[in-house]
Every structure is written in structure tokens, then in C-alpha cells.
């Protein structure tokens, strides 16, 4: 007797499709309408919730934070404002005398105030001298300018670039802000100045991108960026490549723009380099991660996100707890101040390896139990397919557990995308990427980008091309500190 029942297979397939659609609808509903608590929380937040409440340690941490802030406030420019006692108040209610003298230097109190930024019009007068013989003239040099016939100084241009690239302020809003401060500047003029700055600083931003490519460990990611087109906008891509220079520990963050998401961009940036590349599973990086190129390192944040999206299934919660154990090891290392040491490597080889073994066992056990095209089945297949790349961090403490640093580097671009919507053309995209690189690297190293850009915009015009790395934010800051000490 044939027990084969076509209707049972059809019913099983329909049940699988229904389960998949229900989970997709639940994920979409949570993403669009869900509360913040229903979004994927960072591992550090979950670990804090698990940790026992230590009120003494929390009080000490809060005190340390207050002292750090107080130390920063001490560096603010300070001025003393003296408040004299009015003459009409200088009368003694007892003896009715008016002969008062100071009892002490005064009662001081501190008030933090905001003084709006000030723009000024500078009139530069160049002295002209004539020889007594009347045959020759000499004229003093004028002020240094970013470009010939530019009527705006490097400080103003640096302010403009910082406002757009660090604060994601579109130029039409900056136009209104400048007008309120008494300096009306046309938006077209600011656009020209922005692109002029990008052109002048292009050698430095290109040098930064090449510097990133020489590092052993590089992280990369990409995000869409709308580009204006005749009928409607088209989609270009902003890529980020970041690393940390091993000799100086400078953070290096570089961006580049591409009209497409093709793998030609990673190839152009990293094609001749070697080391490790920390990325997600996107195939556009395959041309770089070859036996003769870079070793691919996976991202556990992407794995964790896939299982979170399958969370309506109870089994997904089990995997999220197992993945959190990997982050628990890294949190313990950071708290103990052992990051990058031999102890860090030993903890990864022992504790992280045990967590990975439990994760692998769970994946193999659960893979046959869930529809391969459902959210949970897809998450399992994704993790197993990336297994070698996901486990390489165990043998190298330089490798991060995930690629979140790249995603954080793209947040400023995402915010800017919401504010100024699109760039005008591909060249504008490249200019934006170059200036993003310098501003983001300044911010990552605790350098004021406005001060940096104001100086380098003038310096780069005469700096030797063979020593452009001296104008990168890290070396620039150290040289400035050495000259002022």
C-alpha cells in the first residue's frame, strides 16, 4: 500500500509558508511600530541588566564621571565679573554710617554661560613702500587664503565643513543660522566653498584612505546615498574603511563614494593589501577576500540580528543567550584592562571556544527542525555558512567580535542623508566622502575638526607631497602639542 499522500506534502509546504509570513509580518510590525525596548538592544546593555547591582561601584563610577567633567570644564576660557555694592546700599542700619571697606576679596560663584560664536569682517591693509629714488615699490604680503580671490577665511570654511560633516547640518539650515548671526551668505556660495575645501584637502583624504589600506586589520561597510538625476534620484553608495594604526594607536576612518555597490570599490581600495577584513556576508567583498588577498572575518552582530528577527520562535531566544556569552568574555576582558594581551588570547581560546562549541552544537541540532526558508532556518544557514569567518577571532586578539565600529561610522552619513536627502552628482559624493573622512578621524581621536581644518586648509597648499601623512589628524595634533609645550 502506497502511503505517499500528495495533499500532506502540500499542507506541510503551506504550513511552512504561513509560518514564514507570520514571522515576517511580526518583524515588520516590530520594526515600524515597535517600542524602543522591542528593538535589538546592544550586548553591553543586556550584560548590564544581567550583572548584580553594585551600588558602591555605581556610586564610584558616577563620582569618577563627575570629576572627569569637572576637569574638562576647568579648561574653559574664564573671566572674572566683579559685582560692586551699589552706593545706595552702603548705609549701616545700626549707626547710619557710610564708611564701608572690603571684608574679603569677595564671594565667588561659578556660572557657565553660552556666548554665541562671533563672525567678523577683517580689513587687511597691505603696506606699500616706495624707494627714495622713486624707481621701485614693495608691497606687503596679503593674508593666506584657501584659494585665490576667495573672500572667506579658512576658519569660516572649516566651520561650514564641520557643521555639515560632523553635525549633519544641511546648507539651507546653516544659511539661516549665519543670517541670524549677522552674516548672510548665499547657499550657492557655501556650496562652492564646501567643494573647494574638498578639492584642496583631497590629497590628505586620499592619503588617509591609503593609510587605512596598509593596516593589518580593516573593517568595512557601505550604505546607500541618493544622487540627483534628471528625472529622479538614483542610488549611489558611501563606503567606509576603518582601522587603528598599530604604531601610534590612531583611529583611522576613511570613506569613499561609488555610483554602484559593485565589488570594484573594495578592490580599488584594498586590492593589493594583505591582512584581515572584518565584514558581513555581502559578496561585494569577495574579490578582496581571496587566498592571495585578505582573510575574511565575520560579524557576530549580523548573526545576532538575524536570530533577533526570528525571535517570535522560542528557539531563537536560546541562540541569543548563547551568542551573548561571547560578548560576556569580551566585557570581562575590557573591565579587567586586558584587551590585546596574552591573557585576552587565553580567555578567548578557553571561554570563547567553549561558547562557540555550544553554538555549533545548537545549530546542527536545530537545523533539521526548522523550515530552511523561514526566518529561523535562514539564520541558522547564514551562521553555518559563515562559520570559518565567524570563528577566526579566537586566534587573534586584534580581531573584533563584530563590525559594529563600521556601522557606527556610517551613522553620521545616515543622519546627513535624512537632513540633506541627496548629493547633486558623483563628484559631490566623492567630495563629501573625502571631508567625512577627515572630520570623522578627528572626532575619533578627540581632535576639534574645526581647528584642524582651519589650519590644514592653508598648510596643504605648500606642504611637500611626499610628507602628506604629517597632515593627517593624529600626527598634526601631536606636532601641534609639541610646538605649544
Automatic annotation (TrEMBL):
It comes from Myxococcus landrumensis. This is IS66 family transposase. Residues 35-57 have a biased composition (Basic and acidic residues). It comes from the Bacteria. Residues 34-57 are annotated as: Disordered. Residues 21-77 form the Transposase TnpC homeodomain domain. Residues 437-473 form the Transposase IS66 C-terminal domain. Signal peptide: none annotated. Residues 152-430 form the Transposase IS66 central domain. InterPro entries: IS66_C, Transposase-related, Transposase_IS66_central, Transposase_TnpC_homeodom.
